[in-house]
TrEMBL record:
Sequence ranges assigned to domain Transcription regulator PadR C-terminal in this UniProt record: 98-178
Domain named Transcription regulator PadR N-terminal: residues: 11-85
UniProt key word DNA-binding: yes
Name this protein carries in UniProt: DNA-binding transcriptional regulator, PadR family
Pfam entry (one): PadR
Keywords: DNA-binding
Keyword DNA-binding: yes
GO molecular function, one term: DNA binding
Record PANTHER family: NEGATIVE TRANSCRIPTION REGULATOR PADR (PTHR43252:SF6), TRANSCRIPTIONAL REGULATOR YQJI (PTHR43252)
Amino acid sequence: MKTYNHTTYVILGILTTDCKSGYAIKQFMDQSLTHFWKISYGQIYPTLKFIVQEEMAEVRTSSTPGKPDRKEYFLTSKGMEALKKWLEKPVEQLPAERNEILLKLFFGRYQTGDQTTTLLQTYKQKLEERYQIYISIEQGIKDHNEREEDAMYWLLTLDYGKRMTATAIDWCDDTLEKFITKEGQ
């Protein structure tokens, strides 16, 4: 079986939902996947074109009076098979995390103690804001999609994000405490 890049599999997966247009796919990405997988708007249409060329999806044009024609994409059995084969494969590697706070902290001796403290406090605040966004998303899924077959899986990925964020907040607290104790010596 031919293998494809992750963007292809992401788009195939999204096509299993009600998202059928490039715009709807982008909206879905921004609302659901962006916290753990990013795809730029510029990747969507070339990937859709490729998926159609590979016969993993077909495109249909729909018309609405007074509006431009809209292309809608539908997964084919070949596309569903490719998605399922990819889902069956083990995870190839752990993701390499690129984290600016860790990078700046690594070279932290070249800034003042106040700068480091502010950096950590600002990062913690952003994490707390992210955590609240996750809580809102979770409530939205529970309120509007609980009967959806995908809801449990969406909540599992959201739980991962919540746990990772909560752990990062705890790390900020511990790091600030250690740093402030060290600075007080």
